[in-house]
Structure formats: C-alpha cells, structure tokens
Amino acid sequence: MQTVAFNAEISAARATNWRSSVIAVVLALSIAGYFWLDSRYPSLLKKYHSGTHVKVIGAISFDTVYTVDRATPLAQRVWRTSVNWLHANEVGMTFGFLFGAAALTLLATIPQRRTRNAHLNSLLGALAGMPLGVCANCVAPIGRGLYASGMSTESVLAAMFSSPTLNVVVLAMVFSLFSPAVVALKLATTLGRRCPIPATFLLLLTI
Question: How many Cα atoms are found within 13 Å in the side-chain-facing hemisphere of 65?
Fold first, then answer.
C-alpha cells in the first residue's frame, strides 16, 4: 500500500510539473511574441532600413521628451536626460521584467539548467539570448531572472551579450554597413570569451 501511494504521489508530482512547464512556456512565448511583433523587431527593422541615416537625437537615446543642450544647468540636464532615457526604454524594460519573471518560472521546472563545461554553458546562453533582441539596458532584468533560476554565470553573461549584439537584425546591419574586416573584428570580440577557436580565426581575417 505504501508503494502504491508513493507511486501515486510521484505521478501527481510529474503531472503538476508538466502542467507548470506548459503554462510557463506559453507565458514566456506570449510575452516575447507580443514584444517582438509589436515593438522590438519593427524598431530594429526601421533602423536597418534607415542605415547610415539613423540619428541619435538625445544624449543616450534616439528619441527625446525634453531637449538637452550644454547651456542647460547641470541638475536640469541630468533630470531631462533621465526622463529621456526612461521614455526610450519603457517598453523594453517592461518586457525585461515580465520576461525575466517568465524565464525564472520556466527554468525552475527544468532540473538541469547548467553543464560542467563553461564553454558549453556560454554557447547555450548565447543561443538563448540571440533571438531576444533586447538592448543592453533592458536585458539586465532578464539576466537577473536567468541567474536566479539557477543558470550558470557563463550562460547569463553570454545571453546578456548576445541579445543586443548577435540578433539577426543587428547582424544584418553590421554586414550591410561595415567592411568585412570590421565585421570579423566585431564578431571576434563578441565570441572571444565563448568560442575561442572561431574567434581566433575571425581575428586572423582582419590582419
């Protein structure tokens, strides 16, 4: 009787874990899909088609709410620049916090979240971060969620680096705007810590 009860408990736990995984996957894909289709990739494609005509209007953003110039007092410049930054990143930061929580929920249902090989961990993190297409600011809460879920430091850092630098639109922009030597140098510096051999080969192409 004890064995039957124990097996029943295991089956119930597995069913609960399976349902939690499905819900977490649907939640993460829904959040990511809405953000990708409604905001991020349309914005990246707009920059891609603008090419060299893309202009940075603010000090650290493409859009501005308040104008900032050198004649403005320091305190006012800091305040206005902060508001401009928050305005430029409000959508991405919202996605970052929501997706970070979804990733934390999803990965908590996966027993194996890292390997003993640091390079493999980095590769897995890079592959996970590439489709996100989130900028360096907005990927911070996602990285925090990944780390809290138990992913290795290598995977978290790789995901945070690959998200803004190795997504498909940014790579297309790099290949269309820069020379092959500059492209190889960029890819080598990005991949250097994760894939030393391909990175060395790319660096040799720049010589």
Answer: 13
